Amino acid sequence: MIGQSFKMAWASVISNKMRSFLTMLGIIIGVIALVVLVSIANGATSSVTDAISSIGTNLLSVTITDDKENPLRLSEMDEVLDLDHIAMAAPTAQTSLTASKGENSESAQITGTTADYLSIEGLNLASGRWIRSSDVENNTNVVVINGDLAADVLGVRNTEQAIGQTISLNGNHYTVIGVLADDETISMSFSSYEAYVPYTSLIRIASSVSSGITSFVCASASDDEIDAAESTLKAWLLKRFDNDDDAFEITNMSTIADTLDSVVNTMTIMLGGIAAISLLVGGIGIMNIMLVSVTERTKEIGIRKAIGAGEGSIMLQFLIEALVLSLLGCLLGVAGSWLILRLIYLISDFNFPMDPGVVVVATAFSLIIGLLFGLYPARKAARKEPIDALHYAG
Amino acid sequence: MIIFRDVSKIYHIGDTEVRALDHANMHIRKGEFVSIIGPSGSGKSTLMNIVGCLDQASEGTYLLDGQAIEDYSNRELAKIRNRKIGFIFQDFNLLPKLTAYENVELPLIYQRMGKKGRQERVEEALNRVGLWDRRKHRPTELSGGQQQRVAIARALATHPSLFLADEPTGNLDQKTGRELMDIFHELHESGNTIVLITHDAHIAAEASRSIKILDGHVTDVNDASEITEVV
Ligand SMILES: Nc1ncnc2c1ncn2[C@@H]1O[C@H](COP(=O)(O)OP(=O)(O)O)[C@@H](O)[C@H]1O
Ligand SMILES: [Mg+2]
After folding, report:
1. Which end of chain A is more exposed for a tag (fewer CB within 10 A), N or C?
2. Are A46 and A95 within one domain?
3. Are A159 and A128 in the same domain?
4. Which residues of B touch A (CB under 8 A)?
5. pLDDT-derived band of residue A40, with 50, 70 and 90 as boundaries?
6. Which residues of chain B have pLDDT under 70?
7. Which domains are delineated in chain B?
8. Does any domain span residue A254?
């Protein structure tokens, strides 16, 4: 019987394509809104959280704003390392310098740091090696560059060829010892040219960088210890800077990740909610048309009842018709969403994969809406008295 | 099989009361061929719709196979309409979007009969009315006579024991009407009960018994001359 009811419902949907399409439009738009918005929100979330987790959620970053005439020395980094829960620490100083080789010259962001920086920030090398402690101690002129710098200033495509070459930073000759792998996540820096040199070496060539450390990063041994690491670090810094907690600022990456996560989650829920409301409106559209359809087809209902259709059969026929409308609308909506997400990818290069979870939710929602809003018209059709229905003039 | 005891059907239109059937009494036995005659508006269709379980009496008792009709549930009534009764209407009442085949198949679908069984029944019924080769036509692509034959095939398909025909020849020419009557005679001869409403005195006379209705009052017709009087 369900199979037959489905056939009847399908015949009725097909026999008036334009009306069926307009009826489904509400559901189609609702599903597109739901799937596209949630997919975009999820895509944006995952690229942001990917960026954060590639840096690491065990990362603490410290900025010293007031050194109390007693700046932090490089040697004091060892004291930080000795603190409980802290596994790695590296000072950072950043400046912009001109990187050049022969005719080629580009402005690059140079970071002065030490050996631990690579692991703390979760960077990867494509070729060569990272800065060693000996490089820092001897303030040797060695540099690790990124792929763009190798390509545009050194003019090499193969990163291996860059190793051992000389590059000039504001006129000082540096030997390239390593090339970073291209970052597949969204870059946090604005310049596409990046280079890393020993901290001590940067002090010499950049006037803005002094031997007093103004910022450093550290990593806890594991993600779980991050909060413990933060408190021991804070205690140490308070002691170091006359108990003034305005003298420094600690940024906990896992806190940032959590905050971002909850902000994005709230946004996803809000967008999903708005889309769900439009789906609901689509459901009301279905009920409206189904009621019109039941009235229009009173005579048909009368004939069916006269030849022996029970209330259940009539009810099933109209209920399934509402379900077919809502599920077909959902299917078209999902197809439309896929097209729109593809289009966004083609136009903007942002690839937001369709979220299978939200497709399931949209389908379930459409099913419930079809059932809910189909029930009343279907009942109305089933309850008609055969003789009244048969004599309905239209 | 059909017994009416003081059956009345009352319609209220505004303040006035119309008695379409007024204390009607009648008895139709199994295997009878009964014609019902009466002028337009006398209550023939009202009576037929009550017999066919499409409508219910306002007063009185209608016993179908010994059981009062109000004792049947809605589901049972649907089943009776589906299996026991073959209703043939004056204006055919075919579903316009379905083909002849699908129209005949429909009551069998409501019986939950399997596809193969349905196919046999539809073929048998459409062959009986000589329209198997028109099975793919929709009602609008058929003449009035052909549509009525499809409607008869639809009634035949379920093998009911009671055929109710409300002026089945009313919209047809004489030759087609004749063909339909031949079908009814065949059905009668094979043991079915037939109740036929007609305006036509010749057709009414073909039945083994006639009942006349005047202003909702039902009486038996005893001799043939009375038929022509009424119609
Ligand atoms: N649904 C209805 N509402 C009001 N009056 C009706 C209705 N159906 C039939 N009638 C009235 O009942 C009477 C009998 O009608 P009907 O049984 O159709 O007559 P017939 O079939 O003999 O022409 C008529 O006077 C008609 O106007
Ligand atoms: Mg009539």
Report:
1. C
2. no
3. yes
4. 49, 52, 54-55, 74-75, 78-79, 81-83, 87, 89, 93-95, 97, 106-107, 109-112, 154, 158
5. confident
6. 224, 229-231
7. 2-230 (3.40.50.300)
8. no
